């Protein structure tokens, strides 16, 4: 069973600072990893796919890295609108299970 | 622009059934695989089911296998989720989501989401 583990569960950062979020897969997912942002009362929004490719319209301050089992989402200079919950999701294994991590809540320090 | 609009949620008693719909527009409906993803109140995201572009391949999460059925109607540009034998564990917002791929598996990340429909299973 594929398990995706995100850390930390909650991250407190000041606006303008850098935030680094981690996602670990229990087995290799190659680069088949996506990141999503979800704000209260809203659907998730795709940020990153293929571990490092920004989705259409996503600001350059969002970047993704990693492959295999270790992945990172970095937000270089936090804006007020970036405080939200972030999820990673793998789309590599077979039969498909499309596992999400449990989420990291990014809050204002 | 791509739009996905879910409907059919509501309050249902344990053991009963419910059918969710997702009306799609703004893209060629018959060319993409589609998914259902759910989120229990205050919890994280859980993938539920996927159907390929032509309906030939369907996969389900273990938690819903044998109880839920995903289907699509190309004449109506609509995705469905038939949910039977509902339990309190199925209480969640249900989202339909599109992927930029025809088939199940590769490139199955969710590029567009609906706004969700809430299902509450309670007596």
Question: TL;DR?
Answer:
The complex is a heterodimer of chains A (109) and B (123). Chain A is 0% helix and 47% strand. With 109 residues, chain A is mainly β.
Describe this protein with a few key phrases.
heterodimer, A: 109 residues, mainly beta, six-stranded mixed β-sheet, four-stranded antiparallel β-sheet, globular, B: 123 residues, seven-stranded mixed β-sheet, 11 strands, 0% helix, 47% strand
Separation of the first and last Cα atoms of chain B: 40 Å
Helix content of chain B: under 10%
Cα Rg of chain A: 13 Å
Tell me the fraction of residues in β-strands of chain A, as a range: over 45%
Considering DSSP H and I runs of 4 or more, what fraction of the residues of chain A is helical? under 10%
Largest sheet of chain B: 7 strands, mixed
Shape of chain B: globular
- What is the global morphology of chain A? globular
Give the count of helical stretches of chain A: 0
Protein architecture, described:
The mean pLDDT of chain A is 97. With 109 residues, chain A is an all-beta fold. A six-stranded mixed beta sheet of chain A has the order 2-10-9-4-5-6, with no helix packed on it. A four-stranded antiparallel beta sheet of chain A has the order 1-3-8-7, with no helix packed on it. Chain A starts with a strand and ends with a strand. Chain B contains no helices and eleven strands. The model of chain B has no long low-confidence stretch (mean pLDDT 97). In chain B, strands 2, 4, 5, 6, 9, 10 and 11 form a seven-stranded mixed beta sheet that branches. In chain B, strands 1-3-8-7 form a four-stranded antiparallel beta sheet, with no helix packed on it. Chain B has 123 residues and is an all-beta fold. Chains A and B meet through β4 and β5 of A and β5 and β10 of B.
């Amino acid at each position: 069973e594929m398990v995706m583990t995100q850390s930390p569960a909650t991250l407190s950062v000041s606006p303008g600072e850098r935030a680094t979020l981690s996602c670990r897969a229990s087995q290799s997912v190659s680069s088949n990893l996506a990141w999503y942002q979800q704000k209260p009362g809203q659907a998730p929004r795709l940020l990153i796919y293929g571990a490092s490719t920004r989705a259409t319209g996503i600001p350059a301050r969002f970047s993704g890295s990693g492959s295999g089992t270790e992945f990172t989402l970095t937000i270089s200079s936090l804006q007020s609108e970036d405080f939200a919950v972030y999820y990673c999701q793998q789309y590599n294994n077979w039969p498909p299970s499309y596992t999400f991590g449990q989420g990291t809540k990014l809050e204002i320090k | 622009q791509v739009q996905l609009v879910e409907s059919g949620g509501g309050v249902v008693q344990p053991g009963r059934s419910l059918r969710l719909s997702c009306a799609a527009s703004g893209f060629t409906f018959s060319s993409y695989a589609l998914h259902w993803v759910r989120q229990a109140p205050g919890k994280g995201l859980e993938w539920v089911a996927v159907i390929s572009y032509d309906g030939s391949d369907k996969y389900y999460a273990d938690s819903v296998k044998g109880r839920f059925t995903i289907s699509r109607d190309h004449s109506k540009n609509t995705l469905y989720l038939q949910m039977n034998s509902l339990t309190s564990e199925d209480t969640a917002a249900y989202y339909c989501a599109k992927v930029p791929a025809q088939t199940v598996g590769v490139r199955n990340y969710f590029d567009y989401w609906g706004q969700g429909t809430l299902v509450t299973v309670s007596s």
